[in-house]
Specification:
Strand order of the largest sheet: 1-19-2-3-4-5
Number of strands: 19
Radius of gyration: 23 Å
Shape: globular
Structural class: alpha/beta
Number of helices: 15
Largest sheet: 6 strands, mixed
Helix content: 25-40%
Strand content: 15-25%
């Protein structure tokens, strides 16, 4: 989400005459796009701001410092008081209004704090994308969940779904520009459409616009070879969605579905809205339709009150599911969240020990899962030259694993190739290129319609 927001802000600045500077020391506007999921990120922001504040004082004020994103939304005026050299504090909902806010800074000659809730308007600015091959496309902003550990609903606001037509229009432009892969983004991407008007005409009781319907609506966009999406919430991951992913050839065999804990009591205290058994049934259903699919998730250890037995339930879930990857973290108390004030906090040493043990389990499971690719020939979308070995190219398979192979990465960039795998590491594969593949023939839009059944930026003038 933050990467997509950064691209949007860079696009806004370029539209009014700024250019991206690789050297922050030469920038006229310095933007810190921040994350507040864990406390460590906040500490890094304030440390970086301290250095830039001194630089601004030395330059007699001709540098504008902007703090954007979730820390900005969370801290608001307090951040401006703590670091008075900051000119603008803006929440993520203002990403496409950066130019207007900077103009206010100039015209008013004062600090500006933009953290009010707003309806996010459709953004006509073209993002400055970091890649010319793969692109993020937001489909829903905000989050209506109230997980007791998470600050996101307080920093990104309520869910706001974009219209299907606007999403398709953005993807059409990407296809025409030569992009090959799109990732549809949302804090809970499978909750898409809950805030849009209307109910399904078939009397099923579904909303008129669901994420499954969106996938079918955009699947045939010319030029786009692959479609991914993230992040999914187990509460909204339906059988209908799984079947659509299995039926639509551009949908990649990769699902990121956070589970957070393997213990039902902890999940209840987190207010996640599902049980470990329900999560297992989702994965079982995915593998029923797509046996080879890769699954990744998120897990938190050391949540308030977590016992050793409850932690071990998370280990068991990781082994039983067979994750290809798990993003792990020790619980970090966040401002304005219920769990931060509970008196049963787990000691930091215990959290660190559990995190290390879980990481070892995750790596062991990922190593075993990776071996299924040995000897297979897989489709790879080439992203470029291996930065560590110039004689190699690299790219990703549909399962979202990196693949390295001998070849000219510059020449092959953007092409689909077949690679026979001869080495499998936990999170990467190696092999030999077999052939370059032809692009898929475009799908007529009527087919998709008829099958519906159920970090930091620096800018210089």
């Amino acid at each position: 989400m933050n990467l997509a927001d950064s691209e949007r802000m860079a696009g806004v600045l370029e539209s009014v005459g700024y250019e991206c500077s690789e050297d922050p020391a030469k920038a006229d506007v310095l933007i810190y796009n921040t994350c507040s999921i864990r406390e460590k990120a906040e500490v890094k922001v304030y440390s970086a701001l301290g250095k830039q504040a001194k630089r601004k004082r030395d330059r007699m004020g001709d540098l504008k410092i902007v703090v954007a994103g979730c820390v900005a939304q969370q801290e608001g005026q307090q951040l401006l008081r703590r670091v008075p050299e900051v000119d603008l504090v803006m929440g993520p909902q203002f990403a496409n209004k950066l130019d207007e806010l900077l103009e206010r800074v100039d015209s008013q000659g004062t600090q500006v704090c933009a953290t009010d809730h707003i309806e996010i308007s459709e953004d006509i600015t073209v993002p400055r994308r970091d890649s010319s091959l793969t692109a993020w496309v937001n489909v829903i902003y905000g989050c209506n969940e109230k997980c007791t550990y998470c600050v996101v609903p307080y920093t990104r606001g309520q869910e706001q779904s974009r219209r299907q037509e606007d999403i398709r229009r953005e993807m059409l432009a990407l296809g025409e520009a030569g992009y090959k892969e799109v990732t549809l983004l949302g804090q809970n991407v499978d909750a898409y459409g809950r805030d849009l008007p209307g109910m399904a005409a078939d009397g099923s009781g579904r909303r008129q616009h669901t994420f499954t319907d969106l996938l079918r609506y955009v699947h045939d966009v010319p030029g786009i070879e692959r479609i991914r999406f993230a992040t999914s919430h187990p509460r909204y991951f339906t059988d209908r969605l799984v079947r659509a992913c299995a039926e639509l050839p551009k949908l990649c065999e990769f699902f990121h579905i956070p589970f957070q804990s393997g213990d039902d009591n902890i999940l209840r205290e987190m207010a996640r809205g599902y049980t470990a058994a329900r999560y297992r049934s989702i994965i079982d259903n995915i593998r029923r339709y797509m046996p080879d699919a890769s699954i990744s998730g998120d897990a938190i250890v050391g949540f308030p009150g977590e016992t050793e037995e409850q932690y071990l339930a998370t280990e068991r879930l990781v082994r039983e599911v067979g994750f290809d990857r798990v993003n792990t973290a020790a619980y970090s108390p966040r401002p304005n969240t219920p769990a931060a004030d509970w008196d049963n906090q787990v000691a930091d040493l215990i959290k660190a020990d559990r995190l290390n043990r879980l990481n070892a389990v995750v790596t062991d499971v990922a190593t075993q899962r990776s071996q299924r690719f040995l000897g297979r020939t897989l489709e790879v979308l080439v992203e470029g030259v291996n930065p560590r070995k110039s004689s190699q190219a690299f790219g990703r398979i549909r399962h979202n694993k990196l693949v390295y192979f001998d070849g000219d990465g510059e020449v092959l960039r953007g092409q689909l190739v077949n690679v026979k795998i001869d080495q499998c590491n936990p999170y990467s594969l190696y092999g030999d290129m077999v052939e370059v593949l032809r692009p898929r023939a475009p799908l007529p839009h009527s087919v998709a319609a008829d099958t519906v059944r159920d970090g930091m930026l620096a800018a210089a003038l």
